[in-house]
């Protein structure tokens, strides 16, 4: 049994430094199980890009905590989410990560068949069992909301307020409720998606994203475009602040060359700036004048996190077949540099050197707030 104290570690001697979580928070399967229960299965979880389900019957399956969830589009065009489990004897309904059915989902075991609203519509000998309620034995629904063109699902019986726990992150970070709307993310088109299989605990990836102390060391291309990042102060450090492009920089591209036309609603003070934000627990949003980069994390084990990263552009940019590789390459490199750093750190989490954790310097102190948030969600009880 592992104890999760409310205050994880004693204060270091130096006031410049505050402690991180101890190493076992990144390696203990029991703590990961608690995080699955109290974070990923309790909060709104960003599951799929709505456009990926482009027609009725299209489906995607995603892992949310310990549950597998199927998200599909009904014949009326609405998105629905269900536990990916047959109500008969529990076989997994869809094994594929993505696919398409015509009108119904059929279990491969004994052929119980559900319509796209989850209702049981057919089963061998069902006619001879008139007492079976087809709704009651339908698929188990999961709550679903759409925001920024993504389907967010929540496994909780009573989901927390979407506004307080999801959209509020944008207000808190950008200081203005309208600021994120200017990018029209829900109307953008997918220009590129890259999936990264990262051998690191999800919290290392969050912590890394929240600070820029490492930018000068590992992100030469990014600091060329955003010179203020070389100072080590992340864009997330100040409410409403976006890092300004360097004077010579024409666009948010790997070599600072021209990007695409500014998205139509992006305001003058948002132009030539980069804004990063974290929507806890698993989403990062990066806003630049001509595109949006959105990361969704899927924590699969205490030491493994799959990250899907989408590059989203104005629909006409994607439809025209324009070459997006220069802007994709910039953040793809940033991702690889970041995830390599996280993978370099993960093995140390089991070392005696990290038994009490490490330290955060002043421009990383906001990561301490993230740690407190995690501890609070875990209840400060026993894991
Ligand atoms: S387990 Fe699905 S039909 Fe039997
Ligand atoms: Fe980074």
UniProtKB/TrEMBL annotation:
InterPro entries: Rieske_2Fe-2S, Rieske_2Fe-2S_sf, Ring_hydroxy_dOase_asu_C_dom, Rng_hydr_dOase-A. Keywords: 2Fe-2S, Iron, Iron-sulfur, Metal-binding, Oxidoreductase. It comes from the Bacteria. SUPFAM superfamilies: Bet v1-like (SSF55961), ISP domain (SSF50022). Its cofactor is Fe cation. The keyword Iron applies. Residues 44-153 form the Rieske domain. It holds the Pfam family Ring_hydroxyl_A. This is Rieske 2Fe-2S family protein. It comes from Streptomyces pseudovenezuelae.
């Amino acid at each position: 049994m592992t104890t999760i104290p409310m205050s994880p570690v004693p204060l270091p001697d130096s006031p410049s430094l505050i402690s991180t979580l101890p190493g076992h928070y990144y390696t203990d399967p029991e703590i990961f199980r608690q995080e699955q229960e109290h974070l990923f299965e309790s909060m709104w979880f960003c599951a799929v890009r709505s456009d990926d389900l482009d027609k009725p019957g299209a489906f995607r399956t995603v892992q949310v905590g310990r549950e597998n969830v199927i998200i599909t589009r009904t014949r009326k065009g609405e998105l629905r989410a269900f536990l990916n489990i047959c109500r008969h004897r529990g076989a997994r309904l869809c094994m594929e990560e993505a696919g398409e059915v015509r009108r119904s989902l059929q279990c491969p075991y004994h052929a119980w068949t559900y319509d796209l609203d989850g209702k049981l519509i057919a089963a061998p000998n069902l006619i001879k069992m008139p007492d079976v309620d087809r709704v009651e034995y339908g698929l188990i629904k999961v709550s679903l909301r759409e925001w920024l063109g993504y389907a967010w699902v929540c496994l909780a019986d009573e989901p927390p307020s979407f506004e307080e726990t999801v959209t509020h992150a944008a207000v808190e970070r950008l200081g203005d409720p309208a600021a994120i709307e200017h990018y029209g993310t829900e109307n953008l088109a997918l220009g590129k998606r890259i999936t990264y299989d990262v051998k690191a605990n999800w919290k290392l990836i969050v912590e890394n994203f929240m600070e820029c102390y490492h930018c000068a060391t590992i992100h030469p291309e990014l600091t060329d475009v955003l010179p203020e990042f070389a100072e080590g102060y992340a864009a997330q450090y100040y409410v409403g602040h976006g890092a300004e492009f360097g004077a010579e920089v024409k666009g948010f591209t790997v070599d600072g060359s021209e990007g695409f036309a500014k998205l139509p609603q992006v305001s003058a003070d948002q132009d030539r700036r980069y804004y990063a934000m974290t929507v806890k627990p698993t989403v990062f949003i990066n806003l630049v004048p001509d595109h949006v980069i959105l990361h969704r994390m899927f924590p699969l084990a205490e030491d493994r996190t799959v990250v899907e990263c989408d590059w989203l552009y104005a629909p006409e940019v994607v439809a025209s077949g324009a070459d997006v590789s220069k802007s994709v390459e910039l953040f793809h490199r940033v991702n690889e540099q970041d995830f390599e750093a996280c993978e370099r750190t993960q093995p140390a989490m089991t070392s005696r050197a990290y038994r009490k954790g490490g330290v955060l310097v002043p421009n990383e102190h906001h990561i301490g707030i993230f740690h407190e948030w995690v501890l609070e969600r875990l209840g400060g009880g026993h894991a």
